[in-house]
């Protein structure tokens, strides 16, 4: 059985730990300097929604994931989505699937004028090409081209593109 002093000491330690954690959370986060060569996010033109997407690939588990974020011309986040991708063959497939998730998500969000931006140069080139794609990811490319025609405006850029 604990004495009154022991109980008060335990309560004091809890309150002190809670206060220290609260103070730590109130501190301003240190801003990490931008590395040379890193690109800064660029806002879309007024009236457009910029949807950034990415699709990393894990070769050992043959899985991937996707991340999507939409922002307006002021940089305000309009929405975001993320998830797991199963049965992914390679990085091109992961990026294609992520782009498809992004375009489907943007349509579900009722965005009408979109700028899609990702780091998958190959995927974006294939989606914007007027020629028929004959690569192993062509089914994804066809799937990406159709929904993009349902937007009032739909542009695709790589992160390194300047528009």
TrEMBL record:
A GO MF term: RNA-DNA hybrid ribonuclease activity
Domain of life per record: Eukaryota
Record InterPro entries: RNase_H-like_dom_plant, RNase_H-like_EbsB-rel, RNaseH-like_sf, RNaseH_domain, RNaseH_sf
Domain RNase H type-1: 52-156
Pfam families, A to Z: RVT_3 (PF13456)
PANTHER family assigned to the protein according to its UniProt record, in alphabetical order: BNAC02G40300D PROTEIN, POLYNUCLEOTIDYL TRANSFERASE, RIBONUCLEASE H-LIKE SUPERFAMILY PROTEIN
Official protein name in the record: RNase H type-1 domain-containing protein
């Amino acid at each position: 059985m604990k004495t009154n002093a022991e109980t008060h000491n335990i309560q004091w330690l809890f309150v002190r730990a809670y206060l220290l954690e609260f103070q730590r959370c109130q501190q301003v986060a240190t801003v990490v300097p931008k590395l040379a060569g890193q690109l800064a996010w660029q806002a879309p033109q007024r009236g457009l929604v910029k949807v950034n997407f990415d699709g990393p690939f894990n070769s050992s588990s043959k899985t991937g994931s996707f991340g999507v974020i939409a922002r307006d011309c002021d940089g305000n986040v309009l929405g975001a989505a993320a998830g797991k991708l199963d049965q992914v063959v390679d990085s091109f497939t992961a990026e294609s699937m992520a782009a498809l998730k992004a375009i489907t998500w943007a349509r579900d969000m009722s965005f009408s004028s979109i700028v899609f931006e990702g780091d998958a140069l190959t995927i974006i080139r294939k989606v914007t090409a007027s020629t028929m794609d004959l690569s192993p990811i062509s089914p994804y490319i066809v799937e990406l081209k159709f929904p993009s025609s349902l937007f009032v405006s739909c542009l695709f850029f790589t992160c390194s593109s300047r528009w």
